[in-house]
Amino acid sequence: MQWLALSFDELSVAQLYQVMQLRSRVFVVEQDCVYNDLDGKDTQAGVVHLLGFGDDGQLHAYLRALPHGVSYPQVSIGRIVVDPSMRGLELGKNLILQGIELCQTQWPHQDIKIGAQAHLKALYGAFGFEVDSPEYLEDGIPHVDMLLKR
Questions:
Q1: Which long-range contacts (C-beta less than 8 Å, at least 24 apart) are formed by 45-48?
Q2: Position 14 confidence tier, pLDDT thresholds 50, 70, 90
Q3: Distance between CA atoms of 125 and 140, rounded to whole angstroms?
Q4: CB contact set of 67 (below 8 Å; sequence gap of 6+)
Q5: Please, what's the b/e burial string for 49-65 (b: 16 or more CB within 10 A of its CB; e: otherwise)?
Q6: What CA–CA distance (Å, rounded) separates 38 from 24?
Q7: What distance in Å separates the CA atoms of residue 51 and residue 63, rounded to the nearest whole number?
Q8: Which whole-number Å values give the CA distances from 77 to 56, 143, 144, in the listed order?
Q9: What is the pTM of this model?
Q10: Is the CA virtual torsion 150, 131, 118, 73 positive or negative?
Q11: Over 90: is that where the pLDDT of 106 sits?
Q12: In whole angstroms, what is the distance from residue 81 CA to residue 104 CA?
């Protein structure tokens, strides 16, 4: 995998298209969830888009890292997604590790908060994230907030 960490302004038009296509394919179509993916956070100052490209040049994994104050008082990671054709290859775990490392580089010694789909609590827990809220519905999907303390 080739990992690129880019600000919104550094994304090429083709890269941005691939990001939007992957996020839409998974979060809107696969999860059958109509929601406003273009929430205005992608373009904010300090937000870093992490793109994982395969040897085939295709975008296989993505997340966005947000400075404190954008989604939560803490630094956060969101829109964590792996292409459905690449699942089962441990790419999601690698993506999460890359995201944590990115946050620690960008914002050293800062806690990281995520809004996780509830069924993924164990996955994120394996990286040290702890449940930090009661379960709640977001866009009709059960979620919990989780915090990785640094």
A1: 46/70, 46/106, 47/7, 47/8, 48/5, 48/6, 48/7, 48/102, 48/106
A2: very high
A3: 23
A4: 45, 46, 47, 75, 106, 107
A5: bbbbbeeeeebbbbbbb
A6: 10
A7: 7
A8: 26, 14, 14
A9: 0.95
A10: negative
A11: yes
A12: 20
Q: How far, in Å, CA of 44 to CA of 140, rounded?
A: 26
Q: What is the DSSP letter of 43?
A: T
Contact 136, 144 (CB under 8 A): yes
Q: Both tokens of residue 125?
A: 């827990």
Beta bridge partners of 75: 112
* Torsion angle defined by CA atoms of residues 56, 117, 32 and 17, in that order, rounded to the nearest 10 degrees: -40
Q: What pLDDT sits at residue 35? A: 84
β pairing state of 75-82 and 112-117? parallel
**DSSP 8-class letter at 19:** H
- How far apart CA 16 and CA 142 sit, in angstroms, is 28
Q: What is the DSSP string of 68-121?
A: TTSSSSSEEEEEEEE-GGGTTSSHHHHHHHHHHHHHHHHSTT--EEEEEEGGGH
